Amino acid sequence: MKTGLALSGGGVRGIAHAGVIKALQEHEISINQITGTSAGALVGALYAKGITIDNIFEFFETSNLFHPKKFAFRQAGFINSSIFTDQLSLYIPEDSFESLNIPLTVTATDLNTGELKVFKEGELYLSILASAAFPGIFTPVDINGNTYVDGGVINNFPVDLLDDCDIKIGSYVNKVDLKNRKLKHSYDVASRAYAINQYHQDKIKFAQCDLLIEPELYPYGLFNFKALKEIFLKGYETACQNLESFKINDKDSL
Fold first, then answer.
1. Of 98, 138, 203, 205, which sits most exposed with the smallest number of CB within 10 A?
2. Do the beta carbons of residue 244 and residue 30 sit within 8 Å?
3. Reported pTM
């Protein structure tokens, strides 16, 4: 039986995926295929290469996204996506999907065609950067004449791309806190509306998961790097709880 893992986008909240993976490893669950979008694509690539959980956390911790040297001037974004190629190469020396230990599929959005782009072979670095290029924050990524941004614009939770799996596990880090009624500023309203829209698109796919791990990360913004450890632990603790109640070892299909 083959087990697939789908990792949603979510900015810094994506470090919760590393916590989920740690729990899966402790429960001796092997993953045979990975799909990911944005931060999920990044964590998925590192995990697929065999990078340890500690080093995945280190990658996020040392990325220092908002250092002035990384700002993009006179470009379509605040931060230049391309500068992260060097950082990726330190952890994944070979720039190819084929170099990974576990098959990986990632999504990006093609601004030229308005269509979803699925990457799963060939050059790896630009595909990951394209998948994680959050619109307006990171500059778009050009690949073979086409311009790409964050895959989450169209497919933020690519569990539907786990095409060769008997069991599908989803790690989703964008659950919306609908109990919070404090909307004091215009950006609070805009942020809530965007989050609700995305959540409604994503939750349609939840039924495709045999196990959905959905940590509550309400207090943490998309770029709250100061809370990395807390977010990681939330992912780990939620996964441990879900795995215990799911009783994965008793599931006939496993």
1. 98
2. no
3. 0.90
With 50 as the cut, is the pLDDT of residue 90 above it? yes
Beta-carbon contacts of 27 under 8 Å, excluding residues fewer than 6 positions away, are 243, 248
Q: For residue 71, what pLDDT is reported?
A: 44
φ, ψ of residue 76 in degrees (nearest 5): -85, 55
Is the pLDDT at 76 greater than 80, yes or no? Answer: no
How many other β-carbons are positioned within 10 Å of the β-carbon of residue 239? 26
CA dist 228 to 13, 45, 47, 115, 233, Å?
8, 19, 18, 32, 9
Identify residue 73 by its one-letter amino acid code.
F
